[in-house]
Every structure is written in C-alpha cells, then in structure tokens.
Amino acid sequence: MDCYDTKLLDYTIENARFCAELIKNGEVVGIPTETVYGLGGNALCEKTVEKIFKAKGRPSDNPLIVHIYDVFQAEKIAKNISPLFYKLAEKFWPGPLTMIVEKKDIIPYTTSGGLETVGLRVPSHPIARKIIELSELPIAAPSGNISGKPSPTSAGDMLYDMNGKIPAIIDGGACEVGLESTVITFENDGVRILRPGKISAENLSQICPVFVDDAVINKIEENTNVSSPGMKYKHYSPEAKVILIDANFNDFCSFAKQEKDEKTFFVLSDNECENADFNTISYGKNYDEFAKNLFSILRELDKREAKIAYFQLPNKCGVGLAIYNRLIRAAGYEVKKPH
Ligand code: TXA
Ligand code: MG
Questions:
Q1: How does pLDDT run along the chain (339 residues), one tens digit per residue?
Q2: 180 lines ligand 1 (CB under 6 A)
Q3: CA-closest candidate to residue 118, choices 127, 105, 132
Q4: Cα 164 from Cα 166, distance rounded (Å)
Q5: Is the CB–ligand 1 distance for residue 119 below 6 Å?
Q6: pTM, 2 dp
Q7: In angstroms, what is the span from residue 112 Cα to ligand 1's centroid?
Q8: From the CA atom positions of the chain, what is the Rg in Å?
Q9: Residues with beta carbon < 5 A to ion ligand 2?
Q10: What values do phi and psi take at 280, rounded to 5?
Q11: Which of 49, 183, 186, 216 has the most ligand 1 atoms within 8 A of CB, as the residue to mutate?
Q12: Which residue has the CA at smallest separation from atom 6 of ligand 1?
C-alpha cells in the first residue's frame, strides 16, 4: 500500500478543489458528512474502490454507498427507479437516508460488492456536496474507520485510523448526526430498514409502510442470508467490553455502586452523571445528543484504557432504534439484568 503523509486540511474552497482533484486522479480522501466522516473516491473506478477496501481492511463483499449531488445524478446510476424513491428523495434528501436501487452497468461490481444493486445517498453536508460537485463524479464512501471500529465523527478520529493510508482529510468539525445513514430497500409498496439512523421508522412511515429487518434488532446466525452484507460483520467495537444493562436508573445506580472500579465506566445522561460516586461518561442531554456522541464515547473509552463500559439499554423509539442497533453490536448482543 502507498504510504502517505496524510494532511489534515481546513475547509476552504481551495482545499475542497484540491480534494476534488485528488478524487479525479483516482485517490481516496477523508470527507466530512452530516452523519460520519467518509473515505471517498470515484465510485466508477475499480482501482480506486479497491484502494478504499484496502485502507479500511473491509471484506470485498460488503458494498459501498455511492454519494451523489441530486436525483438527476441518481438516474445516471440506477434503473427501474420507483415513484416511491422520488417521493422519499423529495422529503429526505439531501440528508442521512441511503436508498438501495438496481444499478446500471456504469457502477462496477467492486463498488456494489458483487450485487446488482447500489445504495445511493445525497448528503446534506456542504463540504461533501462541494466535493461531489467539483469532482463531477459519484463518490463511493464508506465510513472512514478501520473495519470493525467505531465510525469517525471528527477529523481527528479519522486521522487516527487512516494516518499514512490516504493523502488528505478535510476537517469539517464534529458531525451533526453522529450515526451513519438510515439504509432502506424497497419492498412491496413500502420500505424495509436494513440499518436504522436519524431518519427513523416513524419518519418514513409518514410516507409509506415500513418494515424493520430482523437483523436490525437481533443477532444473525452465521451463514444466514442477509439483505445487507454489513449486518453480518462485527462492528463498533472498542477495546473495552461494552455491556448493556436492562434496568431503570435507580437499579442501574445500585448496580454501578457494586461494580465500580477504576477502569469501569458508566455512560449516563448529563443530569444522571451529577453526584454519581462512580466513573461516569455523559452522553449528553437527550437521544439526539447520545447519537451524536456515541462513537466518540466508544473511542474515548479506549483512550482512558477502560476495561468495561456499562450502558443502560436504550428504548427503541425514533433515533433510539439506531442507538440500540449500534450498542447491541458493540456489546456482542449481550444484555444483562442487574443482580
Ligand atoms: O452515513 C453513512 O451512510 C456513511 C457516510 C460516509 O455517508 N457511510 C457508511 O458507509 O456508513 P458504510 O460502507 O460504512 O456502510 C454502508 C452499509 C453497509 O452496512 C452495507 O452493507 C450497506 O450499507 N449497503 C451498501 N450498499 C448496499 C446494497 N447494495 N445492498 C445492501 N446493503 C448495502
Ligand atoms: Mg461503516
């Protein structure tokens, strides 16, 4: 693999132009989006896409999301687009929604992980949009982490994983949403959620019937056929052991008092952290802040050399389903009741 002196670039129009040029020349760059930082390159170029897989250490059957500027660009990449696609695009794009559609031949199988479909997303982040516009290309961009690690929600976190592997990362500050986009596929007259995100089942059901794939909530046994290859891989794992506790706040606190230890952390809301006499990390004031902070908390645990991190089992409403989905994977599907 090439070894780069990875540059952390401020967001200026010159740097966006510089990154767009790098992408046109077949390179891969770090791009901020409203969800997480992405590892972006020309989605039409197999060699570039191979570089993306290599930099992440990602299995080649796990397809990449293709980032585009608008619906018109979608029509160049996808075929048999349904009226519902247009309806959802009008409501939720630009934004954190990825829609899976049939691909045209222009998208190589390397990008689609060998599938006949491709995931499309129009990001809302101005830097991501600028780079797509200037490069005049659809941009394949998985999250900019090493495969299996939490997605990066800051340029520093992406640099930590990608230093030396890519030429540049544009620093767009902390990502607003903090969890990856909602991934949906079309089914009957509605959609199936393959990966939950900020655009919730409740939001989508205002437009059409919504099914939540079993793999969003439950562990998928090995060798099962999954609708989205990403579902079967290990994800979001810090070095610390993440454990979910199914308990109300009082029982969680009693449990914390028994289990407290220098290298054990308890993740709670701002208010709940006040007056605690055990190690706490705050996830913020509400579930939107929890979503925004979750991946940086998982990375923070490693920096603090945590051995165990306890989280209260989140409820599955709204963005809570996405938080639950990431945490249950980080926890290896283990949920405990306090003893
Ligand atoms: O928010 C996001 O979606 C971020 C930013 C950078 O846009 N990207 C991202 O990409 O999270 P990635 O590659 O880390 O996750 C893409 C997920 C994977 O679980 C993959 O299996 C699924 O989407 N996926 C992509 N294309 C698919 C397809 N054609 N069929 C089924 N699942 C697909
Ligand atoms: Mg990812």
A1: 569 999 999 999 999 999 999 999 999 999 999 999 999 999 999 999 999 999 999 999 999 999 999 999 999 999 999 999 999 999 999 999 999 999 999 999 999 999 999 999 999 999 999 999 999 999 999 999 999 899 999 999 999 999 999 999 999 999 999 999 999 999 999 999 999 999 999 999 999 999 999 999 998 877 777 787 777 766 777 889 999 999 999 999 999 999 999 999 999 999 999 989 999 999 999 999 999 999 999 999 999 999 999 999 999 999 999 999 999 999 999 899 987
A2: yes
A3: 105
A4: 6
A5: yes
A6: 0.96
A7: 10
A8: 20
A9: 143
A10: -120, 155
A11: 183
A12: 38
Between strands 335-336 and 241-245, the pairing is: parallel
CA atoms of 223 and 328, how far apart (whole Å): 20
